[in-house]
Amino acid sequence: MRTLILPLLLATACTSEPNTSAVNPDGSRNTDDPEGPGPEPWDAAVDAVIVEVDYEPAAEPATGSGLGGDPWDLFDANAAALFAGTGVTVTAPHTLAQMGELPTLGEDTFTASRLIELSDAWRDTLSDAHTSVVHVLYLDGRFEDDGQVQDQVIGVSIGDTGVVAMFGPVLDQLGLLPVTKRFGEQATLIHEFGHAMGLVDNGVDATTAHVDTAHGAHCTNDRCVMYWANEGASDMADFVSQYITTGSEVLFDDACLDDMAAAHGVTE
Ligand SMILES: [Zn+2]
Ligand SMILES: [Zn+2]
User: Fold this and answer.
1) What is the pLDDT of residue 53?
2) Max Cα separation, the chain?
3) Among 77, 129, 200, 209, which residue is least crowded by beta carbons within 10 Å?
């Protein structure tokens, strides 16, 4: 089975067959490992999603109540909207003290296999039959796919492994204004979290025709955070400045929210 990698800024990248404990040889999740990702988040038994964040010192996530407020409030607002009425709670850290600081890794590039290895090495949130874990790594390097360094990829979500990576040197290109960078970074995380949660048609079935088939697993609505191409730092900056003014906007459109509701048995 091929592992689909979902970068924010490219159409989609492809394939890699990580052979580590988070993933079984057939590509499925290894749910026996208590420090693994646990069940897929759309599994009916899941009532909690925990977001674990680890970061390299040079790729520290934006936090705190600086310009524009706490960017993690934006994450919470979007996670709550995504799971509204489902009974699934999402817990994410807000402060660096609630995240894990990695050593400086000294790696300029990271392949998908390497990201899975790092997640296996550093993940410490316990999962169980009711808890699905998303492990987010903020790294001081760029994504490498098929031997090519991906200069424009700011984040990736790797298949259904629950592993998300955010690439610090590319995040640094996200706009001239610090407030744009703060919220551009968070919008990127929300996009990757959307993939990890099964959007679009990525584990959670699409209930209306909004799948961007040319750019797999994305939404056709350019006002939705799951649109494939807030392509390049300047378009992401535009997205952020057009749609984020209070720091609590829901960035998913109704089509994406409806898919998630349907997957979790919510009827309107
Ligand atoms: Zn994407
Ligand atoms: Zn959408």
Assistant:
1) 98
2) 50
3) 209
Torsion of CA 261, 263, 265, 268, to 10 degrees: 30
* pLDDT of the residue at 20: 54
In whole angstroms, what is the distance from residue 64 CA to residue 77 CA? 16
At residue 25, the pLDDT reads 63
- What single letter denotes the amino acid at residue 195? H
**CA 254 – ligand 1 centroid, Å:** 17
Residue 13 has what pLDDT?
A: 33
- The reported pTM is 0.90
pLDDT at 34: 85
CA 86 / ligand 1 centre spacing (Å): 24
Distance 222 CA to ligand 2 centre (A): 8
For the chain, residues with pLDDT lower than 70 are 1-23, 25-27, 175-176, 230-234, 268
159 alpha carbon – ligand 1 mean position (Å): 11
Number of independent structural domains in the chain: 1
Question: How many whole angstroms from 3 Cα to the centroid of ligand 1?
Answer: 14
Q: Per the domain annotation, does 222 fall within a domain?
A: yes
The protein residues having their C-beta less than 5 angstroms from ligand 2 (an ion) are 219, 221, 224, 226, 253, 255-256
In a domain, 261, yes or no: no
Q: How many angstroms does the Cα of residue 217 sit away from the middle of ligand 2? A: 10
Question: How many Å lie between the centroid of ligand 2 and the Cα of residue 61?
Answer: 25
Q: For residue 209, tell me if it sits in a domain.
A: yes
pLDDT of residue 268: 63
pLDDT (0 to 100) of residue 224: 93
Conformational region of residue 73, where left means phi above 0, alpha means psi within -120 to 50, and beta covers everything else: alpha
Angle, CA of 182, 184 and 189, to the nearest 5°: 100
70 alpha carbon – ligand 1 mean position (Å) = 24
